[in-house]
């Protein structure tokens, strides 16, 4: 089969002919229709420090996709050939303390599809049946293909009650920040204000439901708050940039008693004024992946009840043109890019 492979420990990705994956007794074989490119894939493409520490080439990458089941392992009973599915990208061990107390998303031994084992930038992928997700037929294929990052956004945005709350999203123009804005809108937030450095992406965040989006380098967050009639700080903060500067701006603008979700992967040398954290009585929550599998139910419900994230898909191309897709990803002037395998 054709697959996009991290074939060598250097910058780049290569379309190669690789053997079909072997289907275990508790696995399903999925024929990929569409896959979507994640920031993680860009790290692997660039072969940065994180990728060098994490990826063991050769590896078929990709963890955002939609496809159709074409083969079932002998023990699989709950799906049938032809089911349209996607998959939760984190495979939990099922045995550790967290798995056994229903917290598989923070399993001690998580294995990432397309990171630690072959993924979905290919004509076929094998996944354990425990990770397969069959979603409502009313949700279009390309939306199903981005439910993994939508799930990150959902987990981030819905970690704290947000009805009537003022929300601040740093990195709001990134795919996850933008989709988090949509979810906050859908979920009944009051004002949704965000920051991003990229003008293309600031526009995108507005399309997805943000009220005000500013460039924090030359616009004042304070002014944005006043323009929206806000008198105190934010009740909810969603850090979706991975920037320590943005993180500090967010903590600075939180109202006493505020709740903060940390999704962006902050550099290890990030510092913060702990007095603000303590004397404002803030709550911080680290967000990893999607809650298994509550987040998936939340997403399916919202997507079939009017949550519209379609504008986040800005580019579509044939999988063979993946190089062009990664070139666009590197400029940052995009939302989600869909690769078509059919
Ligand atoms: P992305 O890199 O595409 O988006 C980040 C956005 O932040 C960009 O639009 C960028 O312009 C903006 N930004 C950068 N510095 C900024 C600053 N100082 N102020 C305001 N905006 C700034 O990433 P994404 O795919 O949307 O993911 C968001 C973050 O979440 C990334 O850090 C990613 O690594 C991380 N992530 C975490 C998990 C998890 O499970 N915790 C999963 C996926 C992604
Ligand atoms: Zn576990």
Can you characterise this structure?
This protein has 2 domains: 2-146 and 309-340, Alpha-Beta Complex (Quinone Oxidoreductase, Chain A, domain 1), CATH 3.90.180.10; 151-286, Rossmann fold (3-Layer(aba) Sandwich). It is 28% helix and 25% strand. The chain is built from 12 helices and 18 strands. It has helices spanning 39-46, 49-54, 97-100, 141-144, 147-157, 175-186, 199-207, 221-227, 244-253, 274-279, 294-303, 322-331, and strands spanning 2-6, 14-17, 27-36, 59-60, 65-72, 84-87, 90-91, 111-112, 124-128, 132-133, 167-170, 192-195, 212-214, 234-239, 254-262, 283-286, 313-318, 336-340. The strands form 4 sheets. Strands 3, 5, 6, 9, 10, 17 and 18 form a 7-stranded mixed β-sheet that branches. Helix 5 (147-157) crosses helix 6 (175-186) and helix 5 crosses helix 11 (294-303). The radius of gyration is 20 Å and the shape is globular. The chain binds nicotinamide-adenine-dinucleotide and zinc ion. Nicotinamide-adenine-dinucleotide is lined by residues 39, 152, 170-171, 173-177, 195-198, 201, 216, 240-243, 245-246, 263-265, 287-289.
Summarize the structure.
This protein is α/β, with parallel strands linked by helices and 342 residues long. It is built from twelve helices and 18 strands.
């Amino acid at each position: 089969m054709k697959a996009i492979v991290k074939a060598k420990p250097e910058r780049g990705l290569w379309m190669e002919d690789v053997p079909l994956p072997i289907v275990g007794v508790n696995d399903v074989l999925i024929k990929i229709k569409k896959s979507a490119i994640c920031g993680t894939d860009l790290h692997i493409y660039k072969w940065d420090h994180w990728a060098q520490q994490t990826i063991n080439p050769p590896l078929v990458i990709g963890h955002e996709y939609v496809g159709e089941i074409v083969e079932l392992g002998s023990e699989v009973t709950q799906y049938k050939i032809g089911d349209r599915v996607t998959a939760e990208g984190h495979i939990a061990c099922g045995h550790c303390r967290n798995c056994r107390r229903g917290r598989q998303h923070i399993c001690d031994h998580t294995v990432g599809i397309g990171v630690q084992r072959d993924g979905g930038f290919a004509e076929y992928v094998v996944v354990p049946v425990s990770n397969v997700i069959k979603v409502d037929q009313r949700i279009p294929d390309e939306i199903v293909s981005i439910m993994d990052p939508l799930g990150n956004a959902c987990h981030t945005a819905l970690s704290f009650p947000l009805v009537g709350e003022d929300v601040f999203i740093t990195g709001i123009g990134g795919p996850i920040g933008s989709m988090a804005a949509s979810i906050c809108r859908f979920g009944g937030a009051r004002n949704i204000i965000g920051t991003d450095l990229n003008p293309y992406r600031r526009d995108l965040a507005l399309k997805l439901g943000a009220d005000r989006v500013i460039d924090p380098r030359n616009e004042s967050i304070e002014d944005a708050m006043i323009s929206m009639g806000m008198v105190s700080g934010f009740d909810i903060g969603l850090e979706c940039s991975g920037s320590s500067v943005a993180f500090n701006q967010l903590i600075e603008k939180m109202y006493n008693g505020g709740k903060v979700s940390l999704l962006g992967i902050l550099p290890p040398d990030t510092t913060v004024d702990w007095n603000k954290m303590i004397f404002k009585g803030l709550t911080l929550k680290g967000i990893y992946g999607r809650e298994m599998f509550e987040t998936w139910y939340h997403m399916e419900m919202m997507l079939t009840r009017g949550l519209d994230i379609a504008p986040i898909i800005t580019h579509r191309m044939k999988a063979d043109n993946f190089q062009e897709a990664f070139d666009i990803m590197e400029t940052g002037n995009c939302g989600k890019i869909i690769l078509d395998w059919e």
